Structures are given as C-alpha cells and as structure tokens.
Amino acid sequence: xxxxxxxxxxxxxxxxxxxxxxxxxxxxxxxxxxxxxxxxxxxxxxxxxxxxxxxxxxxxxxxxxxxxxxxxxxxxxxxxxxxxxxxxxxxxxxxxxxxxxxxxxxxxxxxxxxxxxxxxxxxxxxxxxxxxxxxxxxxxxxxxxxxxxxxxxxxxxxxxxxxxxxxxxxxxxxxxxxxxxxxxxxxxxxxxxxxxxxxxxxxxxxxxxxxxxxxxxxxxxxxxxxxxxxxxxxxxxxxxxxxxxxxxxxxxxxxxxxxxxxxxxxxxxxxxxxxxxx
Length: 278
Fold this sequence. Notes:
- The protein contains eight helices and nine strands.
- By secondary structure, it is α+β, with helices and mostly antiparallel strands.
- The protein has two domains: 7-143, no CATH class; 151-276, Acid Proteases (Cathepsin D, subunit A, domain 1).
- The strands form two sheets. Strands 3-4-9-5-8-7 form a six-stranded mixed β-barrel. A two-stranded antiparallel ribbon has the order 1-2.
- α1 packs across α2 (35-48).
- The mean pLDDT is 77.
- Pfam families: Peptidase_U4.
C-alpha cells in the first residue's frame, strides 16, 4: 500500500516540531537563541527530513547523514559555543528526536533512511511536541536548571553588531577607574571575525606583542585583577542589547584566554544584569 505524502505539509509540521525540540535542547543545556536563528535551525531540520522521500540508502550513509544533519541544525540554531557545549546540545537534540521517533515500534509506522513517518495526524504530533516542551519548562521551573544558563544578546561596538552568549556572574566586578563606566568582559577569539578590520588588527597586535593602539579607534585600557595577577585589558565603548532592552554607555573589555572558558562569550556583573533584565 502506497502512502501519499504532501511535501508542504511534511515541511511545515517538521518545522514546528523541530522548533519545539530545539527549544527543549536549549532548556536542558541552559542555552538560548534569537527567534531568527530558531527559525533558521527549524527550517534546516525540516529540509533534512526530505531524506524520507529519497531512494533507500545503505545503513552507513543513512547514519552519517543523520549525524551531520543533526550537527548542522544545532549549529545553525545555537552556533558552535565550544566543543563540549555543542556536543551536549547535539546529544539532547538527538535524544529528544529519538524519544519522539521511539514510536517506530507502533504498527503502521514507516521508515526510510532513518527518517520516520508517524501514523498520526499533524495536529496530534504538534500537540505532543508542545506538551513535551511544556513538561520540560515545568520540570525546570520546579527543580531549577541544570546550570546557570547563557542568554543571547547583541553587542554594538565600533559600528558593528556582534552576537554574543552573555553570562551573568554575580562575582564579576570590573569598572572603568577614570569615568566610572560599567565594563563587560568579552572573549576575543570567538568574536574576532565579527569585529571591524581596524579594531581586529589592533587587538591582534596587542595580544601578540603588546603593541600600543593607534589613535582614533577609541581604545582605552582597563586594569583587571584576577587569580593570575593584574593586567590591562583593551576596551572600547559599547552598548548591549537583549530583546527590547538596550544598555548604552558600557565599555567592552577584551581578554584572550589560552583555552575557551566555557559556553559564554560575554561576562557581565550585577550592575549590567539588572538593566538587561536578567
């Protein structure tokens, strides 16, 4: 017996289901993304399900396709915030997909290239996905998140808008000693490619050889005390945007750690977090 599959319905249903699964993976990993990136990741996931309509592949090729498509979907939605964090996101997204597709033991389920066609109506499937997401939010509201989560924000500096994953650290205090402006700390390597060329070249020279910045870029230095000792961090004027909130009058100080310090790319303290609404 042949099954008629409407491609537009297949893409639309899988788009909505993928959005719920990606949000669920983000909840479990303490991550967030913008609405635009969520839509892009959901669209990529929906397109990947067209493998269901392709001729049957050999098992190794089907497994490789599922792994690559899973990683690509998560990367489009959340980026690649470090190997460990990215692996956790991929693992939870794959696990949630596996739970949803665990119905392959039910009669009437059809599979092809490790893609599953469930014998349920689109509305029922979407209600189930929304129910799983609501259950996850309820569990996290009762028991708390597994870790303090990062949140998506945009840092405006030197005429560029740089997407960042901000982390609120209650113990972080850094301030401009001259003007008293509040300071956020930015990991330089993850955001380097998004910075304007003049600023990028200046920071490259500073971190490589301690070369003084040229005049005109507005670069100043902020003294910083850490467990490793005291140092000077190059900083530029910036504004931080999160949703509808905008916090101007900041300094964005850059650090270049030898290894990634985790999922965050921007660190902020209580003073900025209050204005951002965290």
